[in-house]
Design a protein that fits this description.
The structure is a single chain. The chain has 14 helices and 25 strands. The chain is of the alpha/beta class. It folds into two domains: 233 residues, Enolpyruvate transferase domain (UDP-n-acetylglucosamine1-carboxyvinyl-transferase, Chain), CATH 3.65.10.10; 205 residues, Enolpyruvate transferase domain (UDP-n-acetylglucosamine1-carboxyvinyl-transferase, Chain), CATH 3.65.10.10. The strands form six sheets. Strands 10, 11, 12, 13 and 14 form a five-stranded mixed beta sheet that branches. The chain has a four-stranded mixed beta sheet with strand order 23-24-1-25. It has a four-stranded mixed beta sheet with strand order 2-16-18-17. Strand 8 and strand 9 form a beta hairpin. The structure holds shikimate-3-phosphate.
């Protein structure tokens, strides 16, 4: 794999515990291009690696998580090259080779789970490892269906390290216990190499980027409500695509604009997909001033430019059913709720406990460290809003190596009365390497120590 600058950037972030601080100051103004979507970036690399022939990917998110997937696809036999125009992947035609060393997916749940599905479907053998956070996350949700298809899986109590050997796979009819796009996608990727029709019956709709991208590589997949069907085996053909902007990353600038007085910020090119846009609907229900204009379509996804202006926010009692469409946005939504008027209840957040950290506990602690009353009842998070000028701040946020807690803490500091510091900004690079620079470009007083 030929990687120059992005790889160097990734290496320099690993293990670097740099604290960071943010303070209230002037209004945030300007336009920002949303960074490439993380979910779409992983899928683009993996499908290109499975395809026959060459693919071109523009706008790939060059974050730690995605670069880990890029390295893994190279270790599995794909040609992975970065040049001035973007990424060029020479696919394996569905024939992964056995890597010489364990595939290290770092912090990336999406990378490891989707690649397990892809490896199983090609019949290859690979070992999977990750950092301490990834090593504590549940993998049985993916290994169980892959084993049911005929893959040989050995794990450490359903966790990494995992050894996986694909065999001639058979199709399955699977109903995952949790709403998870990672589980659905891992099964669909394995199904590309399986004999017969695989069916995934989702308990609730989850992001459908795999289903939208497969046809661009010549794949066929059918969705009917909550049921997704894929008839295997299928071979894919390399293609050209552009990665659209990430609504989960855009959320930080948007919420900062809503809570920092006098702000007006436009984030351009972000995915507008019902399976990802829960946060923006919720913010509007809370009274947020958001305006949209249509953008181009990329990788099967519509995009929009979204403008946010400061205004009063009202508390919300949020139903659990919406969680999959905004699962990564709860920490920063909780920050918005802290600046709203009234008590917010965010329901049904059990899955947050299985993210890069226990995000439910981490979000509550982030708020309480800054003088906000927050508590967990069962799987619900309850936040007592302090109103637009009522948040004290002044806390030191423990991020537990979780990029989204880190960015949420820094956004809170932009509108609180006292500065907010975080213990480790290094992990922000797993999903949004340019975050602090982008926020500074809008006028934010935010820096690493
Ligand atoms: C992702 C799905 C979500 C999300 C993650 C990315 C994906 O996880 O939290 O950041 O790309 O499929 P689950 O589907 O497991 O909830």
């Amino acid at each position: 794999m030929q990687l120059a600058t992005p790889e160097a950037a990734f290496v320099s972030h690993q293990g670097s515990e740099k604290s960071a601080i943010s303070r209230s100051g002037k209004a945030l103004c300007g336009r920002l291009r949303a960074p490439g979507d993380k979910s779409v970036s992983h899928r683009a690399l993996i499908l290109a690696a499975l395809a026959q022939g060459e693919s071109r990917i523009r706008g790939l998110l060059e974050s730690g998580d995605v670069l880990a997937t890029a390295r893994a696809t190279a270790a599995l036999g794909a040609g992975v090259h970065r040049d001035a125009e973007g990424w060029r992947i020479v696919g394996t035609g569905g024939r992964f080779t056995r890597p010489g060393a364990p595939l290290d997916l770092g912090n990336s749940g999406t990378g490891v789970r989707l690649l397990m599905g892809a490896v199983a479907g090609t019949g290859a053998t690979a070992d999977f490892v990750g950092d301490s956070s990834l090593s504590s996350r549940p993998m049985a949700r993916v290994l169980d269906p892959l084993a049911a298809m005929g893959a040989e899986c050995t794990s450490t109590g359903g966790r990494l390290p995992v050894r996986l050997t694909g065999a001639p796979l058979k199709a399955i009819d699977w109903t995952p216990q949790m709403a998870s796009a990672q589980v659905k996608s891992a099964i669909l990727l394995a199904a590309l190499g399986a004999q017969g029709e695989t069916i995934v019956r989702e308990p609730a709709p989850t992001r459908d980027h795999t289903e939208r991208m497969l046809p661009l590589f010549g794949g066929r997949v059918e969705t009917d409500g909550l049921t997704v069907r894929l008839k295997g085996p299928q071979s894919l053909t390399g293609t050209e695509l552009t990665v659209p902007g990430d609504p989960s990353s855009a959320a930080f600038a948007v919420i900062a604009a809503l809570i920092v007085p006098g702000s007006r910020v436009t984030v351009t090119g972000l995915i507008d997909n019902p399976a990802r846009s829960g946060l923006y609907k919720v913010l509007e229900r809370m009274g947020a001033k958001l305006t949209r204009s249509q953008g181009e379509t990329h990788s099967g996804e519509n995009t929009i430019d979204l403008t946010a202006e400061t205004g009063p926010l009202d508390a919300i009692d949020l139903e659990a059913e919406i969680a999959p469409s905004m699962i990564d946005e709860y920490p920063v939504l909780a920050v918005a709720a802290a600046f709203a008027r009234g008590e917010t209840r965010l329901r049904g957040l059990a899955e947050l406990r299985a993210k890069e950290s226990d995000r439910l506990a981490g979000t509550a602690a982030l708020l309480t460290a800054n003088g906000i009353n927050a508590r967990i009842e069962g799987d619900d998070l309850i936040v007592t809003g302090c109103g637009p000028d009522g948040v004290r701040g002044g806390g030191h946020v423990r991020t537990h190596g979780d990029h989204r807690l880190a960015m949420s803490g820094l956004v809170l500091g932009l509108a609180a009365r006292q500065p907010v510091s975080i213990d480790d900004a290094g992990m922000i690079a797993t999903s949004y390497p340019g975050f602090i620079r982008d926020m500074q470009s809008l006028g934010a007083d935010m820096e690493t120590a």
